[in-house]
Amino acid sequence: MLDDILRVSQDGQRVYLSAGKVEHTNGQPIEKKQIKDWLVSNQVEGFFCFDDTIESALTKLNSSPDDAEPEDFIIAERRDATIESRIADDKMTAYLVVNGACGGRGLKADDILSTLREANIVRGIKKPTLQKLLSASGKLKPGEYLDVPVAFGRQPIAGEDAHLVYLIEDPAERVRRPKQREDGTVDMRDLGEMVMVKQGQPLAKLIPETSGYEGFTVTGSVLSTSAGKPMTLTAHPGSELSNKDPNILVATMAGIPRLQKDGVAVDDALSLDAVDVGTGHVNFEGSVVIKGDVEVGMKVTASGTVTVGGVVESATITAGADIIVQNGIIGRQVAADSDINCTLVAEGNIVAKFAQYATLCANQNLELTLHAMHCKTHVGQSIVISDATKRKGTLAGGKHEVGEKVQAVIIGASAGAHTYIHCFPRLPILKRELVNLNKSWEEKSAQLDKIQAAEKKLEAVPEEKRDAAMVERISSTREHLSTALSEIEALVEETDAAIESGYQTASIIATKSLLSRVHCTIGEEKHLVHSEHGPSHLFYDNAAIELKPYQANG
């Protein structure tokens, strides 16, 4: 019966079902299972079956009268394995989609390669993945498919900037990290030997910039990269470029190293056991190393770094570089409104364990490990008060002006003293500069308008009657005013950027506690802390000072 209605085409590619003019065996309708069994018995069960067509053909077959016109339905066909490509929108990943063979030819290596060529997938192709795909495709059952990423683009990698690696210890690190005992604890009184270098000793090494790596898409487009920024290794006084390697800096003399952003300077060193009435005041062209204390009323002036192994007590120190005090800075204030009698001024950083009743002026940073009590500070960049464990470090009382950031473990005094902090104090100066620049721009612009008007009048005069000297003078003045206006506009833009940057970098951070009676100013905005807070972060936002909880990773 089924052989009467089912047949395989002569080319072996399709299976037909004929409906109409066929007598049903025993008058029973033919079911789909019978069709499937016939396909198996005729070894074409692997063909792709059109199940919806089988249902339609059986409906017609089982419901048509015996004299109905026959109609052939293609219910299955042989299909070869197929492959197509898919590329992600960003062209950084390409996929191959393989549909298993249905009684037909399996996938061949040439099919894969031609599909890649047609899709212009030319870079980042993973050949081992292609081999695995070819092998896996032969195991697919009819109707199964694989969707596999086979090619990957590469994002460009920017080059690294040139940078300096110091080959010697930073003298200030002795205060930041005291010497460790064998049991792991630290001895705050033993800060190690003074840092000295010998003639010919390597000081720093320049690591050149790298060019980076270009990226590419799977279709072969090149994604450009950017090279790192170069840096020049500078031979400061007391150092020179090595004859063996121009990227290495060596000392030309024995002395105390002074780390610079682009190199290292070595200062001739004056070494003293102490500074007292016996030595008198010290004024030295170079660096000064004082193993002991700087006693009351003494003055030390140096063009380089001043390093004090003991304490500074009611004395004055001025340094052209850093001031490093291995112990404390102690001053006194006889009356509430009298001047503090201990002053330290550094063009670089001031680093010490603690300071109390002292005036501290650092063009760069002030770093203390224990506390600053009732001090007056003027700092160009940041104040940081914290030990290595971040458990100790108090800023209490006094008045503090800082260019950028103040950070301490505890800010404020619990005994009733007021603490005044002013970040970004340069704002009024920058605003005045803006006013003056805008005024100058208006004046120059008015002058230019007059010159241009005179130039137009002169153009109306016949050329042979024009005063050549006048023409030259007007043209020269116009060019000069145009240049001046461009320079003023650049300065205005630069000043605006400085104001914006000043607000962005200004912040006051207490990593553990912010106590009451702390008067905070950022730029010209003020905020008084009335009650105690936990970890806190004060910053400028939307024309006001915001106070929010501080998070170390935020």
Sum this structure up briefly.
This is FapA family protein. The protein is 22% helix and 33% strand. The protein is of the alpha/beta class and 554 residues long.
Describe this protein's structure.
Mean pLDDT is 88; it is low at 186-192. A hairpin with a 2-residue loop joins strand 38 (536-541) and strand 39. Helix 7 (427-460) packs antiparallel against helix 8. The strands form 7 sheets. Strands 17, 19, 21, 22, 24, 26, 28, 30, 31, 33, 35, 38 and 39 form a 13-stranded mixed sheet that branches. Strands 18-20-23-25-27-29-32-34-36-37 form a 10-stranded mixed sheet, with no helix packed on it. Strands 1-2-4-3 form a 4-stranded antiparallel sheet. It is 22% helix and 33% strand. It is α/β, with parallel strands linked by helices and 554 residues long. The relative contact order is 0.05. It is built from 8 helices and 39 strands.
Write the layout of secondary structure elements.
Elements: H1 2-5, E1 6-8, E2 14-19, H2 32-41, E3 48-49, H3 51-63, E4 71-77, E5 82-87, E6 93-99, H4 109-118, H5 127-137, E7 145-152, E8 163-166, H6 173-176, E9 202-207, E10 215-216, E11 222-223, E12 234-235, E13 239-241, E14 248-251, E15 256-260, E16 263-267, E17 269-272, E18 282-284, E19 287-290, E20 299-302, E21 306-308, E22 312-313, E23 316-319, E24 323-330, E25 343-346, E26 350-356, E27 359-362, E28 366-373, E29 376-379, E30 382-385, E31 394-396, E32 398-402, E33 405-411, E34 419-423, H7 427-460, H8 468-505, E35 507-514, E36 518-522, E37 525-529, E38 536-541, E39 544-549
Parallel strand pairs: 12-16, 17-19, 18-20, 19-21, 20-23, 21-24, 22-24, 23-25, 24-26, 25-27, 26-28, 27-29, 28-30, 28-31, 29-32, 30-33, 31-33, 32-34, 33-35, 34-36
Antiparallel strand pairs: 1-2, 2-4, 3-4, 5-6, 6-7, 8-9, 9-14, 10-11, 13-14, 15-16, 35-38, 36-37, 38-39
Helix pairs in contact: 7-8
